[in-house]
Design a protein that fits this description.
heterodimer, A: 164 residues, alpha+beta, 5-stranded mixed beta sheet, B: 626 residues, alpha/beta, Glutaredoxin, Rossmann fold, Ubiquitin-like (UB roll), 4-stranded mixed beta sheet, 40% helix
Amino acid sequence: MKKKQTTVAFRGTPEQEAQLKAVIEKYRGTKGAMLPILQEAQDIYGYLPIEVQTIIARETGVSLTEIYGIASFYSQFKLNPAGEVAINVCLGTACYVKGSQDVIDEITAQLGVASGSVSPDGKFSLEATRCIGACGLAPVMTINGDVYGRVKKNEIAGILAKYK
Amino acid sequence: MAFIRNSDELAAVQNANVGKVELAPDSGKTRIVVGLATCGIAAGATPIFDALVKAAAEFGSDDITVSQTGCVGICQYEPVFEVYKAGQPRVTYVKMTAEKALEVFEKHIKGGEVITEYTVGANNASGTPEEATSIEDTKFYAKQKRVAMRNCGVIDPENIDEYIARDGYKALNRVLTSMTPDDVIKVMLDSGLRGRGGAGFPAGRKWMFAKASQSDKKYVCCNADEGDPGAFMDRSVLEGDPHAIIEAMAIAGYAIGSDEGYIYVRAEYPIAIKRLQIAIDAAHEYGLLGSNIFGTDFSFELKLRFGAGAFVCGEETALMTSIEGNRGEPRPRPPFPAVKGLFGQPTILNNVETYANVAQIILRGADWFSSMGTEKSKGTKVFALGGNITNTGLVEIPMGTTLRTVIDEIGGGIPDGKKFKAAQTGGPSGGCIPASLQDTEIDYDNLLAIGAMMGSGGLIVMDEDTCMVDIARFFLDFTVDESCGKCAPCRIGTKRLLETLDKIIAGNGELADLDKLEELCNYIKSASLCGLGQTAPNPVLSTLHYFRDEYIAHVVDKKCPAGVCKELLSYEIIAEKCKGCTACIRVCPVGAISGEVKKPHTIDSSKCIKCGACMEKCKFGAIVRK
C-alpha cells in the first residue's frame, strides 16, 4: 500500500514521550521487539509521525531508515493522523460482492473525503480496510469502533448524520 | 484455582466441572450460552448477555447459569443464544434482542415453554421455515461434522475449567506421560492431517523434519495472521476455543524438542488476542504451561506477537521475519524453516485450524481421524461461507463433500431466485469454480486439479450478477497492494496484470491481451520467490479458463454481460414502454435524455455517464441497461 508521511503538524506532549520511553525500556533485551514497540507507540500517539520514529531510532539505536521501512511496510501503521470521526469500510471479498465499493463512493460523495484521506478540517477520515472478518454481515463499515452491518446506500446519510 | 501435577489432578478438575458444561439429565439445571464472538458482539449480543445475567441474578437460582461462548457458526442469525435444560434438547434462539431474551427467560427458562417462533428453524434465512428448534436439527448443520470447532459455541473460552471438562489437556497429559516424541509424530503422520492454512503440507512430516534437526533451541509457531479476505475460521477458533491451540502447540513442542512457541495473531482481532492472553495466563496458573508440566521434565512457554496487517506475513518465512521484528519479507527456501527458521533455529509453523485438530487426533487416534475424508485429504475442513448465499457462516464438513451439497443444502442456495455462477475458494491465491463443476468433491487435490485451491477456506459464492473479469481485477488489486516488493516477477508482474485487466474493463482491450495475460501469469507463477507471487495469477487464470467468453465479450463486443463494468454499459429507452413522462429527463445529471412530453424519449450515449439514475426513476420499466 502506498503511504506518505503526513503534513499535519506534530502535537506530541512530554507525557507521551515519557510513555514511549517506558515502552522502549520494557522491551530492551527482547528479541524482535521493533513491531511491538511501533504498535504501542501508535497506541500512544494514534499514528507514527516522523518525530516519533526519530525518538524510537534514538532510543533503540536502530536506524531511522530501517524503522521507516517497517512503519511503511505494514498497513496497520498509520503515518497520518485519523480524523475525529474515523470511518472504515470493509473491502474484503464478501463485502465487495455485496456492494461495499458503492458504500465508499456514497460516503465520498456525501463528505467529499476520498478513501485513504482526512477531510481538511480533520473531522472525517475514510479508509477502505481489509476483511474485518464479519463477512456474514456484509457489507460492513465501522465508525469510531461502532459496527454497521448490511449497510444500504440509502442508510448512509442517516448514519453519518449521527457523527456530524 | 487448581495447580495440576498429574493425570489424577486433571481428572479431578474435569469431574468437578463436567456437570457445568454437560448437564446431567436429572440435575434440574439450566445453562444459557450467548454467542459473544466478534460477529455476535457486532450484531448486538452484549446487551442480551447483560440482560440475561441480570435476569438470572434477580431470579436467584443457583441452577441457572448464563455463560459467554464463541461462535456457533451461524453468522446469518446473530445475535444467537442457546438454552440447555437438563434432560431436554438444546434450543437455539436467533436474531435476538434484549426484550426478546427476557421474554424467553420468562416463558422458557422459568416456565418451560419453548418460544418456537424465535428459534432457528422458524427464522430460516431462505424464507421457508423448518421445524428445527435446535441448530443441530437444521439442514445447515445436518451434514456438518465438528472437530476443529467442537468447542466453539459450547464452552466459555475464558474459563479453563470448561475446556478441561471437555477432555482438555488430556491429550497433553497422555503425550507427556506415555508417549515418546516419535510416537506423537507417528500418530500425526498416520492421521494424514494436512496443513489447513493453504498448501496442505502434511503436518506430521513438518514435525518429523524439525525433530530431526539438531539444535539446542527450536521454536513452535502458530500462524494466526488470517489474511485471506473472506476467511474467518481461525478467528472463530481463537475466540471460541483458545486452549485447544495452546495444548496443541505444547504437544508439538514435546514432539520436536522445543520449549518455546510464538502465536502470530492479527492485531485486527482484539477479542481473539484478549482471550488468548487470558488462556495463556490460566494455563500458567494451572501448571499446564511453564516448567515441568505434569511433573515431567518438559517445559514450554508461549508468547503472543501481533501481525501488523501485511498479507504476505501469512507466508511462513515472511511470518518469521516479521516475528524477528523486520519488514515481513519472505526469503528463499531452502533452507526450510524445519532446518533454519525463526531466529535461525529449527522451527515448525502450523495454522490455527491445523492445531485445533491435534489434541483430538491424540485422544481419539489416527484411525478415527483418517476414517473421515478422502484418500489423500483426511478429516474435516472449516469453510467460511459468504457472498451471494442464503446461509452465511462457518461450516465444518468432512473432506470430500461436494460443492453442490455445501451450496444447496448447507448454504440454502442462492437468494432472490438468482442463478449460481461460480464459487471462489482460496482467496487471492485461489480460483473460481464454475457451476458445471459443482459436483466436485472438495479436497486439496481436486481443487488444485480444477485450478482453484483449498487455501485457508474462504468460500465466496457468486450469482449471475457478478462479472468474472471484475472479480479477477479485484483480487489482483489486492495482490498488487500486498506484494512485498522483494522480487520482480511479483512486484512488477502483478501490476502489469492489473493494468491489462483495467484496460479490458475500460473497454480498450484487444483479443491479443488475453494471450498476453496468460503468458504473463505463467511467468509470474514460475518465477516468484514465495507463495504469494506463485499463486497471485490464479484468479486470472481460472476465470480466463472457465469464463473466457466473458473476457471475449469485454474485448470484442465491448459489453459486460453481468452489467457490472460501468464503462461498458449503455442505457437505452424502450420506445413502446416509454410514456413520455419526462421523469428521467429531469433526473439526468448531465442532460443526456431528450424528448417531448407524452412521446418516447431517447438517451444520447455520448453524453451519458451511466449513473443509472434514470433507470431507478422510471416507473414503467422502460429504461434498460445493456
